[in-house]
Amino acid sequence: MATSSEPMCVDERKTSNVTIKEGDQAILKKGKTVRIFQIRKNRDIWLDKIKFSLDGAVGHYYGSTFVVKNGQMHKVQKTFKEAEVLGPEKGTDNRDLHDLDSNQKLSREDIEKMKKEGAKGQEIIEQLIENSTTFKGKTEYAQEKWVKKKKQKHVAEFTVLKPNTRLMCQMYHEKSPAKILNIRMDTLAQILTYGNVHAFTNVAVVDTCSGLVVGAVLERLGGYGKVFHFHPGERPVRPIVDNLNFPQEFLDNLYNFPFCEINSLKSEEGKSDNVSDNSHGDSVPSDGDSLSDTTVKQCTDSNTETNTAGESTEGQDKDNTDPVARKRKAEMSTREANKILYSKRLSEAKELLLKRNIDCLIIAGKFNPTPLVTTLIEYVAPSRPIVVYSQYKEAVMDAYAYLREIGCLVNYRVSETWLREYQILPMRTHPEIQMSAGGGYLLTATTIVKEQK
């Protein structure tokens, strides 16, 4: 029975990773519009001026395409292509065509009426083609572009995708690039490549770009390896990591480390050295001292017990009857448990960092990287890469000049990536009209064992 049930458990685990479940974060894509939502039943969302519910997507596989009808999502087996609705008549050029409202005989009211009657998107586009006075005079390429534009407007089809680093980077770069410090996908790929991030490595990351770099590193490690996230404030702000639906075994290898605790690493190292040096010289307290301490403690406990016996019984009676008090008590216990877990994880991170066995250091933040590099580089093992990203050249050049001066690295390199996307279509391959102006600056180097003078 055990051998037969194990494959079933593995299959169920694999199926659960590729099927849409309630509570998951999912990406909805329509054309170039990409947005992320949490799958929750009985809740309406707005996307591309369309209001609908995500209930119909639960249970299907990621990558499925759905059409919205009457506010509900219905899976479609096949979406029509632009070439399927094109007629045989085509024009030679568009020089005599003018963009006028009178070119289309169908009004907006007629189109809305067709949608309410349940007409499919392909039927609506066919009616638009029949009632257009200039469609037959357009060239083949112009007809395909026209149909694609109408399909984007009148066909409510969405593809549900599983969140990953590439899609999250694309979504943030188009919607709010300042939140990810204008990191493009090609720049993020270079950060991972130059950092030699792979399974069974320990990576230290300074990330203030909404957790994009931390999420990319966790995705690349695949649950094998440890990630130390250095962040400002008491708690990290990384919504991208929360939206990537990582399993718990991935998050167990992620350690949070505030900036304010970095200086305590040296003090912890000094304490450990003092303890090891003085371990043989510590004196054992005498029996008289321990007895006196115990006697004082017992007397104090007896006095406090007699004074607080009545108060504790009254408080317990109130807690048992008052639901607000019970809720407050549960919240306090949860808060205390979280504090204990936080301090335990922080101490574990300090122990691992003091081993000075970090395989890669990645810095991608809005702060000056020079003090961060010089402080954290001593915890990186020799012959390991470091990668510094900044959207400003001055910050990278300052770190480059300082690191060259202290001389603890080799193979210095400062680079800027220039990306140009191309439209790939038959007889119409050319660069895109709009392109990204810049993708930031990278400083890469390799650590060495510094000679002691």
Q: What are the main properties of this structure?
A:
single chain, 453 residues, alpha/beta, Vcp-like ATPase, Chain A, domain 2, Rossmann fold, 7-stranded mixed beta sheet, 43% helix, disordered N terminus
Explain briefly what this protein structure is.
By secondary structure, the protein is α/β, with parallel strands linked by helices.
Shape: flat
The share of residues in helices is 40-55%
Percent strand equals: 15-25%
Radius of gyration over C-alpha positions, nearest whole angstrom = 31 Å
Would you count the extended β strands for me? 16
CATH architecture of the largest domain: 3-Layer(aba) Sandwich
User: What strand order characterises the main sheet?
Assistant: 10-9-8-11-12-16-13
Tell me the structural class: alpha/beta
Description:
The protein is an alpha/beta fold and 453 residues long. The protein folds into 2 domains: 15-162, Vcp-like ATPase, Chain A, domain 2; 165-273 and 341-447, Rossmann fold (3-Layer(aba) Sandwich), CATH 3.40.50.150. Helix content is 43%, strand content 18%. It contains 14 helices and 16 strands. It has helices at residues 2-18, 108-116, 121-130, 140-154, 165-175, 185-194, 212-221, 239-243, 248-251, 264-278, 287-321, 323-354, 369-376, 393-406; strands at 25-30, 33-38, 44-47, 50-53, 65-69, 72-75, 157-161, 201-207, 225-231, 254-258, 360-364, 385-390, 409-416, 422-423, 430-431, 441-447. The protein has a 7-stranded mixed sheet with strand order 10-9-8-11-12-16-13, sandwiched between helices. It has a 5-stranded antiparallel sheet with strand order 2-1-7-5-6, with helices on one face. Strands 3-4 form a two-stranded antiparallel ribbon. A hairpin with a 6-residue loop joins strand 14 (422-423) and strand 15 (430-431). Helix 3 packs across helix 4 (140-154) and helix 13 runs parallel beside helix 14 (393-406). The protein starts with a helix and ends in a 6-residue tail after the last strand. The model is unreliable at 1-14 and 279-311 (pLDDT under 50). Heterotetramer. Residues 289-313 have a biased composition (Polar residues).
